[in-house]
Design a protein that fits this description.
By secondary structure, the chain is mainly alpha-helical. It has helices spanning 2-12, 15-34, 37-41, 44-58, 64-76, 78-88, 92-107, 111-130. 24% of the residues are buried.
Length: 139
């Protein structure tokens, strides 16, 4: 679902959409740089900034239904993200680099790499939460 919305956003997005991605990424990165512990604890502020970044990537998809579905699924996965963040926090630099790469691929309109990076990012979440029992994601 998220990769479908991303594909549509890349096709339809304009300058304002791109500016929104850059702004959301900047806020997320600076927040973690100032206080990496916010990532470890999955604080409401970190979660708000993280969601805003992911939502910014999809914002131009043109489908309110896809955006609402993304919101619903994001909020439903909150407790799993909290568990995951404790495990990922020591690697916050690598995780933030992954977000930067994702934004770079999206902004350069490199659909193949953007979809692959997003799928990898989502798979990482599943692997951290579920370990080797993680279900395989389909894009």
């Amino acid at each position: 679902m998220e990769t479908t919305a991303l594909r549509l956003a890349i096709e339809k997005g304009g300058d304002d959409w791109e500016a929104g991605i850059l702004s959301a990424l900047h806020r997320l990165l600076r927040s973690v740089e100032r206080d990496p512990e916010t990532m470890r604890e999955g604080t409401p502020e970190f979660d708000r900034l993280h969601k805003a970044f992911h939502r910014s990537l999809l914002e131009a998809c043109g489908s309110e239904r896809l955006l609402r579905l993304h919101d619903d699924l994001y909020y439903q996965a909150y407790r799993y993200r909290r568990v995951m963040m404790r495990r990922l926090a020591p690697h916050h630099h690598a995780i933030m680099e992954q977000h930067k790469s994702l934004a770079d691929f999206v902004l350069s309109r490199n659909l193949g790499k953007a979809e692959a990076e997003l799928a990898s990012h989502l798979a990482t979440s599943l692997e951290v939460v579920y370990g080797e029992q993680a279900p395989k994601s389909e894009t």
